[in-house]
Structure formats: C-alpha cells, structure tokens
Write a structure and sequence with these properties.
about 400 residues; mainly beta; four-stranded antiparallel beta sheet
Length: about 400
C-alpha cells in the first residue's frame, strides 16, 4: 500500500505492464492495445517529471533549457538530465542566446557548456561555425578541447576550455575533411599546422601526403618525413602508395604496440595490379595482405571467399595465413563465420578444431547461435563447453 501512495507513477506503470501481459496471453497477440496507451502515459509522466520548461533554441542546441520556473538557464547534454545531469548557469535569462550546441551568451558573459570563457576569446566578434565544433573571433580559430583527443588536454594552454589553432587565419580557414583543414598559407593536420610546401602539397590517401620535396606518413597527429621519391609517388588505394621502385605501407601500430613501420615491397611491374576489396594486392604473381606477402599464394587463382577467408587452387587462407589441412574445393563457412569446414575437418578462427565431427557439426539453435555442437561436444569458439 505504501508503494501506491508514495510512488504513484511507478505504481501506474507496474499496473499497466501487468494488464498488458494478461491481454497478450488472452489475445495471443504480439502487442496488446495497451502498448500505445502505455507509451502515451509514460510520455506524459516523463514530461511531468522533467525539470525543464523547454529548450532555449531547439534548432541550434539540445543542451540549453529554461528551468521549470523559467528563472534560470540550465545545461543538460541532449536534455538527458536523468543520466547526464542538469546544471543551472548563473546567466541572465532574458538576454541569453544559444550560439551553438555547447555555446551560449547573455549580456554579461560568453559560455561554453557551463563555463564562462570571456578571458579566452574576443567576446564581441566570437561566433560558432555551422558544424558546432569550430569557433572563431576576429583574430583566431578555436576548437573545444572536449572535442579533441586526450593528448591535447595534456598540453592544455593555461587550462583553458578552447584550443587555439596556431597560425590559423580566421577569415580564410576551412575544413577539408575530418582530419584536414587549411587557410590561405597553411595546412593543418588535426588542427596542428604542418611544415610543408603549401603550393605543391597533396593528400595522397589515409596514410600518406606529399609536397614537391618529400613524402610523409601520417602518425597520430604528426607527419614523418620518408625517403621516398615524391615525383613518382602515386596512390594505389586508401592504404598503399607506390613510387618507381616499391609499393609502401605505413603501420603505426602492430599488435597494439607503436612501431611506426614503413614497409617497402619491391615490384617489377604494377601496370596490371589487381586490388581485391581494398584488402589484397595482386602483382608479379604475389599476393599482399596487411603489408606482408601471403606465403605460397598463387595470384592467378587467388580469390576472396568471404573476408577474412580467401583461397587459391591449392590452399585456403584466414586473413593472410594458410589454414592447414583445409581443402579449397570443399571449403565452406558457417553462418557464425569464425567456424568453417571442408569435407574432412572443422575449423575455428582458421585453426583446426580437434576432435570435431564434421558430419554432425552445426549450431545449437538454428537462429544465429554462437554455440555449436557435434555428436560428442558443445563448443563456444575454440572452447569446449560441455561433454554430451
């Protein structure tokens, strides 16, 4: 009885759910008529519990709201006050305007989220770009530190909330894509100016750029100069490049460790180079995967079955490794694709699943099961779950 009197909203929801369950059993329907009614009632309850009278300007921001009494401005990310919080700002309500998703101003101050940032910018000329992530004043370009990687916070300029983009001209600055921007004199890689020849600078692909003097690899917000001929360098795909002598791949990480490895793959002729789904390079009767030659692969018969599985006339491969004992003519892949089989064996993650019976091996349940079994055992991945 105390639950009903002390928590009427919760009690109503519980009663509706119980009635809904009863009606579903009686009618044998997937959804009872009470579903729509329940959603409507819950929406009313949610509105009644909300601490807000409404958004300040919904067309610009879903984070600034009038308090229930309309005497305060509140900041609540996406209006999700229940999970992400609700902070009152000591702002002048009548003059408060939203400038961007996380920016606002009143007659006295400029705000980023709940913070006053008057001392970081020229308040009179400050404005926020249409994409909400870049802002400007008459002298500088800024990016909120919250939107940048942790490395930037560690070098925070005087513990401020905005990152000042060095050397950027606010009157000519423009974003090129998610990583690159430029003004009339500089290119910026993730909002850091780079020292290159401006007139000849070219973005080759996701890993490499060049100017008339050098080729550079892209390393986590930095450029590394390479000993590659820039005049003959060309794009292979979004990962690889080639000059007159080699194909190149740059790998910043290998097995979770920073290695900054430039891989050079010499070639004789790449005029007939074939690229399979941006994963494999085929040339000079070589197959290249992840910057490494696939051992014993026959390029003339090589094909992708279903990534990460591929095959040639002699072998089946998982990523770039041979699946030992796999027969390419009878090889197939289960719906849960880390399992595969041929006429004689079952494989998991490209390795032989010992003692598995190929004739009876299959999913425990027919619908997308992660558990598989044969006549003897039940498996989860390469682990034995139980003996039958």
């Amino acid at each position: 009885m105390n639950l009903i009197t002390n928590h009427p909203y919760i009690s109503i929801i519980i009663i509706i759910l119980i009635l809904n369950s009863i009606i579903k059993k009686i009618t044998r329907a997937k959804h009872s008529p009470l579903v729509k009614v329940s959603l409507f009632i819950m929406a009313i309850i949610s509105q009644a519990c909300s601490p807000f009278a409404g958004p300040v300007d919904k067309s610009i921001s879903d984070s600034y709201y009038y308090s229930k009494s309309k005497r305060n401005i509140c900041y609540s990310p996406m209006g999700n006050w229940f999970e992400l919080g609700n902070t009152k700002i000591n702002a002048d309500v009548e003059s408060f305007k939203v400038l961007g998703r996380d920016f606002g101003k009143d007659k006295n101050h400029l705000y980023f989220k709940t913070h006053i940032i008057d001392n970081e910018v020229d308040v009179a000329t400050f404005y926020v770009d249409d994409d909400n992530y870049i802002c400007f004043d008459k002298d500088h370009v800024y990016r909120a530190l919250n939107y940048l990687p942790h490395d930037f916070s560690q070098t925070n300029q005087e513990k401020r909330h905005l990152w000042k983009v060095a050397k950027a001209n606010p009157s000519t600055f423009q974003k090129m894509d998610s990583d690159w921007s430029k003004d009339d004199k500089h290119y910026f890689y993730n909002y850091v100016p780079i020292d290159v020849d401006y007139s000849s600078f070219t973005i080759i692909n996701n890993n490499f750029v060049k100017d008339q003097n050098k080729v550079y690899s892209l390393k986590n917000y930095d450029l590394l100069a390479l000993t590659i001929d820039p005049t003959s360098t060309k794009k292979i795909n979004n990962r690889y490049i080639a000059d007159k002598n080699n194909i190149y791949d740059f790998q910043e990480y290998q097995n979770g460790k920073i290695v900054d490895s430039l891989i050079s793959i010499p070639y004789q002729n790449i005029d007939d180079l074939t690229i399979l789904k941006d994963k494999f390079l085929l040339f000079d009767n070589k197959v290249i995967y992840d910057g490494v030659r696939v051992k014993k692969a026959d390029a003339s018969s090589f094909e992708i079955i279903q990534f990460p599985y591929s095959k040639d006339k002699n072998h089946v491969f998982y990523h770039g490794d041979i699946i030992e004992k796999a027969d390419p003519n009878t090889f197939s892949i289960f719906e849960t694709s880390f399992y595969s089989k041929d006429k004689n064996h079952v494989f998991v993650y490209g390795k032989l699943l010992k003692d598995a019976d190929v004739a009876t091996f299959g999913p425990v349940n027919k619908k997308h099961s992660l558990l598989y079994k044969d006549k003897n055992h039940t498996y989860r991945g390469d682990e034995l779950v139980e003996n039958n």
